[in-house]
Design goal:
about 190 residues, alpha/beta, seven-stranded parallel beta sheet, 8 helices, about 35% helix, about 15% strand
Length: about 190
């Protein structure tokens, strides 16, 4: 099977979604040598992956990037497209099954913490949910929010986002202390 994955955030912003994609690719490379993967990005993320993974650089921006990726995926015979962070391709998809990861509903629940662009693109979420065959969410809370706000559907699966091996327990416990390794943004509610 030929599977495409949007890895665009991995090169430009190695924050939460970039780490999610990196860990996803690392795990897929360990467990799957049968399927072939086309990884779409705007610039080379310089990843060391097995031969069944191909990085395809698409040098365009905005909505043109998504349309060019979709066109290339169709031409390559991609059967499944995994949108790891964007609602555009699942909302516009013609003829390719899509898996959509929804990390949060921040642009819907707290628009004041997001740019106008993010809010506008977030408006595609209901259509992306409707057209996607599978929706992955990190928590039951996000699943419940989607079902309450948009649709009750059996195609939403809670798949907790893993933690890299560098965060394995070290044996030292400090009571009452919390470590935060995310980006410092108002929406994080620190």
């Amino acid at each position: 099977m030929k599977i495409a994955i949007d890895i665009e955030p991995i090169a430009r912003d190695h924050a939460g979604i970039g780490h999610y994609i990196q860990n996803l690719l690392t795990s897929l490379a360990q467990i799957d040598q049968v399927n072939s993967y086309v990884l779409y990005a705007k610039e080379d993320p310089r990843l060391d992956l097995p031969a069944n993974f191909e990085i395809k650089i698409v040098r365009s921006s905005g909505p043109w990037w998504h349309l060019n990726v979709l066109r290339d995926a169709k031409k390559r015979g991609v059967e499944i497209y995994h949108s790891t962070h964007s609602f555009q391709i699942p909302a516009l998809s013609w003829g390719i099954k899509t898996v959509l990861t929804v990390h949060d509903l921040g642009s819907w629940t707290h628009p004041q913490w997001h740019s106008r662009k993010v809010i506008l693109l977030g408006k595609l979420l209901p259509l992306a949910i409707h057209r996607s065959q599978v929706i992955l969410v990190p928590t039951k809370s996000i699943r419940d929010e989607i079902q309450a706000k948009f649709t009750r559907t059996g195609k939403i699966f809670v798949t907790p986002e893993g933690v890299g091996s560098e965060y394995s327990p070290g044996g030292v416990k400090v009571p009452g202390q919390i470590a935060f390794v995310g980006t410092l943004e108002p929406r994080k509610n620190l």
